[in-house]
Amino acid sequence: MAKPISNFSRSPEVRFFDTQCPVHGSVAGAEVEQFDGSFQTRICRRCQWEAMNTADTKSEAHTQALARRKAENLNKLLIGSGITPRFADCTLTNFITGAETAKVRALTTCQAYAEQFEDHYRAGRSMILSGNVGTGKTHLASGMVQHVIRRLGAVAVIVSAAEIIRITKGSMVRGAEYTERDVITELSSIDLLVIDEVGAQKGSDYELGLLHEVIDRRYQLVRPTVVVSNLAAHTLGQFIGERALDRLRQNGGQAVGFTWSSMRARA
Fold first, then answer.
1. Is residue 38 within 8 Å of 32, Cβ to Cβ?
2. 257: which strand partners?
3. pLDDT in tens, the chain (267 residues)
4. What is the widest separation between alpha-carbon atoms in the chain?
5. Where are the domains of the chain?
6. Using alpha carbons only, how large is the chain's radius of gyration in Å?
7. For residue 26, what is the enclosing H or E element?
8. What is d(CA 192, CA 231) in angstroms, rounded to the nearest whole number?
9. How far apart (Å, rounded) are the C-alpha atoms in residues 106 and 34?
10. In CATH, which of 3.40.50.300, 3.30.870.10, 3.40.50.1980, 3.30.1300.10 is domain 85-266?
């Protein structure tokens, strides 16, 4: 797989150091960044390889090695998701609705989308989360991203529209090692892409054209996109293009309205 040209899906930070293995003597040790912000010491790489490849497949060593590899792959996907530390604890199970009908409806819709993601993925079915500031849109979007990663091992990323634009404009700098097409190709390859804060950018013709192309390219490849915005859904066309807006609605794409007042002041 080609190396990503951006940090849309970054890799965990790894700190290397010299250490001693009881079996293999002096080895290169490592601490690996975890999704919760901590660092975990990695087992000797030779011990892990031997447990995976030479140990009896029914042995405890082999079972533990498989579990470590699974945990490592999950951690890579979670860190690569773009979920920031502020939203790392936001899941579909801790969104507070207060039994308010509109909030319950938003939560239920997002839960259903995540739980049925395999069907939505095959259909390329998208979603729009739009409405007032501070109403929990990014919480639920991050929760959906975590759900499809943890449950399905999908490659899912949440990134702001402004970050997409900033990275893409970086391709225009002299000496840049990537092109605008590389950015669009990278974003198009992700199983679930959540574009946050749509409408917070300037809304220039270039920005509109870029976001339209990202959404349209994913539509052509039958890959689902979730758009998150503080604007009303019907006004998003001025920031992503009317055709892109129509793409998001096609094939049963849903729009969820967040109509209540900000929840941040109560936190």
1. no
2. 130
3. 455 566 678 899 999 999 999 999 999 999 999 999 999 999 999 999 999 999 999 999 999 999 999 999 999 999 999 999 999 999 999 999 999 999 999 999 999 999 999 999 999 999 999 998 999 999 999 999 999 999 999 999 999 999 999 999 988 888 888 899 999 999 999 999 999 999 887 778 999 999 999 999 999 999 999 999 999 888 999 899 999 999 999 989 999 999 988 877 555
4. 64
5. 14-79, 85-266
6. 21
7. strand 25-33
8. 22
9. 30
10. 3.40.50.300
Nearest to 171 by CA among 126, 114, 224, 210: 210
CA angle, 192 then 195 then 196, to 5°: 130
- 194 CB-near residues (< 8 Å, 6+ apart): 141, 144, 145, 156, 157, 158, 159, 225, 226, 227, 228
Q: Residue for token digits 């055709």?
A: 243
Of 154, 57, 82, 165, the closest CA to residue 113 belongs to 154
